[in-house]
Amino acid sequence: MAQLPLLPLRHPHDREILRLAIPAFGALVAEPLFLLADSAIVGHLGTPQLAGLGVAGTVLQTAIYLCVFLAYGTTARVARQLGAGNRRAALEGGVDGVWLAVAIGLGILAVGIPAAPLVVGMFSPSEAVASHAVVYLRISLAGMPPMLMVLAATGVLRGLQDTRTPLVVAAVGSAANVVLNIGLVYGAGLGLAGSALGTVLAQTGMAAAYLVVVIRGARRHGARLRPHGPGILASGAAGIPLFVRTLTLRVVLIVATAVATRLGDAPLAAHQVAFTIWTFLALALDAVAIAAQAIVGRYLGASDVVGARAATRRMMEWGVAAGAALGVLVAVARPAYVPLFTPDPEVRALLAAALLVMAVLQPLAGVVFVLDGVLIGAGDGPYLAAAGVAAMLAFLPAAWVVLATGIGLTGLWWAIGLWVVARLVTLGLRARGSAWLVTGPVRAERR
After folding, report:
1. Is 291's pLDDT higher than 50?
2. Nearest C-alpha neighbor of 404 from the set 414, 412, 393
3. Distance set, CA 260 to CA 4, 267, 362, 413, 416 (Å)
4. Closest to 126 measured CA to CA, from 67, 52, 221
5. Is residue 274 within 8 Å of 355, Cβ to Cβ?
6. Radius of gyration (Cα) for the chain, nearest Å?
């Protein structure tokens, strides 16, 4: 491993990495504010409404999480064409991604509205909570097409090496969401339905803003805007491995929560807080990964293998440094922030112990996130899918051991650590080789 970055901007790639990563971090942090704002506003309506929002929000977040390949796949495709010097083809690939997002969004909308009661019923809520959840879910599904368009359009701009515009759109969208929710929930007296409607309107506005930027760019460079079947199918095919990769991540997180549930109320409460902190730290580390997607895709599109490797090494250094800094912060500051989450001494003790494990894992997680972004930018989706399955299969027996032996929440987080190590090994071995270094504007999979 090369020397860690001790001085800012001392490396040729630092300025470019930070130019992309810092705005990306801001946009990543802004996105979760939608649901947080909804929760704060709806919470004053009553417990059944807040619980209904929790159920519906889980369903919506899962759907969006599984469709994140629309952003990642589009970023890689656009960046490759940009690196090859063909901005028109880059924008056309981005437009294909947006059309794919529209198709998937409409499909989810068509299936989701009639299936909403069934999906909500899978959580076994009370009758009052279920009715609120169904209302919120059905209205919110109308925002699925624009929300997925936002994902794809964000990928277009990231591929074009622009992370500032997504930051601005995300920030304005989050602010508009708060204003609309307050106005519709309380001003118009629409209650929970007003919260869902406000979020849909904010998402639609964000999609419209992105479309203006993408359409202007496409027209400026003579790129087609109409649906193009082969291009949309190519975007979909490239997205399937990334979908599988994302699904394996989701399975691990769901299983971890299920294990924590069976450990007891106190371990579950501590795990929920720990997982929330882990998610926030992941946003910081994912910012470098997003920069990796854009930078590596551009270098490989330009057939610059040396540049791709050099940028990868430097971003790995940033990943280790960021992870180490976050790990120290998590460990050292525990006495200050753990009491803020709960007054229960047992939960505090369990949480403090789990956070120590989390702190140890952060430098490893920093490298994992970067390598994940590097291989996404390289268009190495099939390997990422296989690596995701392998890491998941390493975690599942460890999770079973935690249940069978009763070693508790700390043991569960060490099992999560095994998953992180498995991802590090599989992704690291790939990065050390050359199979992922496929150059040119379009990746042809090697056999």
Report:
1. yes
2. 412
3. 36, 6, 21, 10, 12
4. 52
5. yes
6. 22
Q: Is 60 exceeded by the pLDDT of residue 25? A: yes
Residue with token string 């622009």: 162
Residue 212 to residue 312: CA distance in whole angstroms: 33
> Cα(78)–Cα(311) distance, rounded to whole angstroms?
18
Neighbours of 226 (CB within 10 A): 6
Cα 90 to Cα 97, 135, 159, 335, 429, distances in angstroms: 11, 40, 8, 50, 30
- How many angstroms separate the CA atoms of 384 and 390, rounded? 10
Identify the DSSP state of 2: P
* Gap between the Cα atoms of 416 and 256, Å rounded: 8
Structure tokens at 337: 């922030």
Helix spans in 43-143 (H): 47-66, 69-83, 87-121, 127-141
DSSP state of 435: T
- Lowest model confidence (mean pLDDT) among 34-38, 68-72, 76-80, 162-166: 34-38
Q: In this structure, are residues 273 and 351 in contact, taking their beta carbons and an 8 Å threshold?
A: yes
Q: What is the pLDDT of residues 206-233, one digit of tens each?
A: 999 999 999 999 999 999 999 999 999 9
CB 399 within 8 A of CB 251: no
Residue with tokens 């180490």: 324
| C-alpha to C-alpha distance for 259 and 348, rounded to whole angstroms | 19
Name residue 250's amino acid.
Answer: R
User: By C-alpha distance, which of 246, 318, 322, 311 is closest to 284?
Assistant: 322
Length of the chain: 447
Could you identify the residue written with the tokens 């993408």? Answer: 214
CA-closest candidate to residue 234, choices 352, 48, 92? 92
Residue 92's nearest CA partner among 209, 212, 205, 235 is: 235
CB contact at 8 A, 141 and 112: yes
Token digits of residue 147: 């929300």
Inter-CA distances, 94 with 149, 177, 262, 377, 395, Å: 11, 26, 45, 14, 35
Lowest pLDDT segment from 38-42, 126-130, 154-158: 38-42
Q: What is the pLDDT of residue 161?
A: 95
| DSSP states along 327-362 | HHHHHHTHHHHHHHH---HHHHHHHHHHHHHHHHHH
Lowest mean pLDDT among 35-39, 122-126, 164-168: 35-39
- Find out whether 321 and 8 touch, Cβ atoms under 8 Å: no
Produce one character per residue of 381-409: b if its CB has 16 or more CB atoms within 10 Å, e if not. bbbbbbbbbebbebbeebbeebeeeeebb
CA-nearest of 170, 195, 225 to 52 is 195
